[in-house]
């Protein structure tokens, strides 16, 4: 080990269970709604994609997809949105559904098929830290298509198909060019990533045993 390796501190990480608890505490103890966190995540993800001119946002049905849908609204406003696709628009509920409605009110179609012609970046919001099973079916097919055809991929929080705690590939996983991980890094992250501050109080991290 070199001296520089010894001097480089390991960044603090947040497990999937800790992430759920931090979200709960941030809302219940510190009065910051998860709704606000999703908007902040969407803004930071869109900001990271702003150097690209044709961004395809690809979403699942959970909060990770909601972050992607929030990002799509900003990318549309900046003239950088290519398209939005969701695995199952009918299954969106709660906060992700509200972001989908906001896009549709702007006249943006949420497609049920993934088309990547003319795209220069895919923003991957299919699965986040809550993934506990192997990816299969349409989701697996979409991931394979992204890996085969996307010139670049930025993943939200963790590349879809990766177990955020262990780094294990759950059947198939997105090969991300970069991951925009939210709040803190995740234990299973590999490759290039940037940590995006979305406004979670330090005290919420401390409450789950993570000291910054």
Structural account:
- There is one protein chain.
- The chain is α/β, with parallel strands linked by helices and 212 residues long.
- Strands 3-2-1-4-5-6-7 form a 7-stranded parallel β-sheet.
- Helix 6 links the parallel strand 4 and strand 5.
- The chain is globular and about 45 Å long.
Index terms:
7 helices; single chain; alpha/beta; 212 residues; globular; seven-stranded parallel beta sheet; 15% strand; disordered N terminus
Cα shape = globular
Q: In total, how many beta strands?
A: 7
- What is the percentage of strand-forming residues? 5-15%
Strand order of the largest sheet: 3-2-1-4-5-6-7
Q: Roughly what is the average pLDDT, rounded to an integer?
A: 94
Which structural class best describes the helix and strand composition? Answer: alpha/beta
What count of helical segments does DSSP give? 7
Describe the biggest sheet?
7 strands, parallel
H and E order: HHHEHEHEEHEEEH
The unreliable regions are: 1-5
Rg, Å, rounded: 17 Å
What share of residues is helical?
25-40%
How many angstroms separate the termini?
25 Å
Short description:
The chain has 212 residues and is of the alpha/beta class. It contains 7 helices and 7 strands; from the N terminus they run H-H-H-E-H-E-H-E-E-H-E-E-E-H. Helix 3 packs across helix 4 (63-77) and helix 4 runs parallel beside helix 5.
Task: Give the SSE layout.
Layout: H1 3-7, H2 16-28, H3 34-48, E1 55-59, H4 63-77, E2 81-86, H5 94-105, E3 110-111, E4 121-125, H6 137-149, E5 153-156, E6 178-182, E7 193-196, H7 202-207
Parallel strand pairs: 1-2, 1-4, 2-3, 4-5, 5-6, 6-7
Helix pairs in contact: 3-4, 4-5
């Amino acid at each position: 080990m070199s001296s520089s390796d010894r001097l480089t501190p390991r960044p603090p990480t947040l497990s999937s269970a800790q992430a759920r608890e931090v979200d709960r505490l941030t809302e219940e103890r510190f009065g910051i709604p998860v709704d606000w966190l999703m908007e902040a995540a969407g803004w930071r993800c869109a900001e990271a994609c702003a150097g690209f001119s044709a961004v395809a946002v690809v979403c699942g049905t959970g909060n990770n997809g909601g972050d992607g849908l929030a990002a799509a609204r900003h990318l549309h406003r900046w003239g950088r949105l290519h398209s939005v696709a969701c695995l199952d628009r009918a299954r969106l509920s709660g906060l992700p559904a509200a972001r989908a409605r906001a896009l549709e009110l702007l006249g943006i179609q949420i497609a049920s098929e993934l088309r990547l012609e003319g795209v220069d970046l895919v923003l991957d919001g299919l699965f986040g830290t809550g993934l506990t099973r192997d990816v299969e079916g349409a989701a697996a097919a979409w991931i394979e298509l992204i890996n085969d055809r996307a010139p670049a991929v930025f993943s939200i929080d963790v590349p879809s198909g990766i177990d955020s705690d262990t780094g294990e590939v759950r059947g198939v996983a997105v090969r991300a060019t970069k991951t925009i991980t939210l709040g803190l890094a995740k234990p299973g992250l590999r490759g290039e990533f940037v940590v995006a501050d979305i406004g979670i109080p330090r005290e919420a991290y401390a409450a789950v045993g993570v000291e910054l």
